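User: tokens in, sequence out, please.
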């Protein structure tokens, strides 16, 4: 694959800085040998014993062991190393870059949101919802297909794609995604699904990696309050939470985290000089066509009325 698509994307538009950063990221990675990448130590992690319990390396979904699945159900989250290839991640980056070039158009259609301006932050936090609907080729990527297959292994039944979104946090951005449970956003309770978080670059704690509260999925759905009267995604915050047992999960590009919808989680501010772009995908048990159409209609209604 050539670098032309990303380079052309840097010529202008709302997402120009992000696309330039993606091009630089690829150049840095190409300059680093595969041997060097394999030998380089993974980022330091806190609560290392819990992280090791929740880490699985999968050359294919069939490699996911029963022990790893049991740990996932016990802790409520898992780190998947080597989920996808560098080449596939480049394809994802290129397709998302095409959507970010349309950001203003998608904002007007209420398919995208500048969460930073809505929170009165100095820098934008650019979110695009339902990226697979907007760019169907994303569903053909290895990342999407492996997440779907892993969800089937983790849930033990056939699954379907439910939702996805991309979020871009620029460098030196002080806004965090507050502690919350994804289920608090859902129209139904006790949903059974697997939620993947796939960064397109190495992500440290200073950059805003995922953090989880182990075992929180086995408790009740907590009380959330809405931040700054926002009506868009990730505007809820869990009330009265003890975060002393939180487990930060820094990961490399090509890795992912996965969690249950009731697992309490958070991503911190991006305090680094590197942009942070992540793609989040949700897969749940396969439903009938009628139920899927009704769910899609409710989702569209929420998007156009909020």
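Assistant: Sequence out:
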């Amino acid at each position: 694959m050539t670098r032309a698509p990303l380079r052309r994307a840097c010529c202008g538009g709302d997402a120009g800085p992000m696309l330039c950063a993606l091009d630089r990221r690829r150049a840095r990675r190409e300059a680093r040998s595969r041997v060097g990448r394999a030998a380089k130590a993974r980022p330091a992690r806190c609560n290392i014993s819990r992280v090791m319990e929740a880490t699985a390396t999968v050359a294919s979904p069939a490699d996911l062991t029963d022990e790893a699945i049991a740990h996932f159900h016990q802790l409520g989250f898992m780190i998947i190393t080597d989920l996808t290839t560098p080449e596939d991640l480049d394809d994802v980056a290129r397709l998302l870059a095409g959507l970010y070039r349309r950001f203003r158009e998608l904002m007007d259609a209420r398919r995208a949101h500048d969460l930073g301006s809505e929170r009165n932050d100095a820098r934008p936090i650019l979110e695009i919802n339902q990226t697979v609907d907007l760019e169907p080729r994303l569903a053909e990527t290895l990342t999407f297909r492996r997440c779907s297959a892993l969800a089937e292994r983790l849930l033990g039944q056939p699954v379907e794609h439910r939702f996805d979104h991309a979020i871009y946090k620029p460098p030196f951005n002080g806004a965090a995604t507050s502690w919350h449970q994804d289920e608090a956003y859902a129209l139904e309770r006790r949903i059974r699904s697997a939620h993947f978080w796939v960064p397109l670059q190495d992500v440290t704690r200073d950059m805003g990696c995922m953090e989880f509260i182990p075992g929180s999925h086995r408790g009740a759905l907590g009380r959330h309050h809405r931040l700054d009267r926002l009506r868009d995604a990730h505007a809820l915050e869990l009330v009265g939470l003890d975060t002393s047992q939180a487990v930060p999960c820094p990961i490399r590009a090509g890795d992912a985290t996965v969690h249950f919808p009731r697992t309490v989680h958070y991503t911190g501010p991006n305090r680094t000089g590197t942009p942070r772009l992540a793609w989040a995908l949700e897969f749940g048990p396969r439903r009938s066509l009628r139920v899927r159409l009704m769910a899609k209609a409710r989702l569209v209604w929420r998007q156009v009325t909020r």
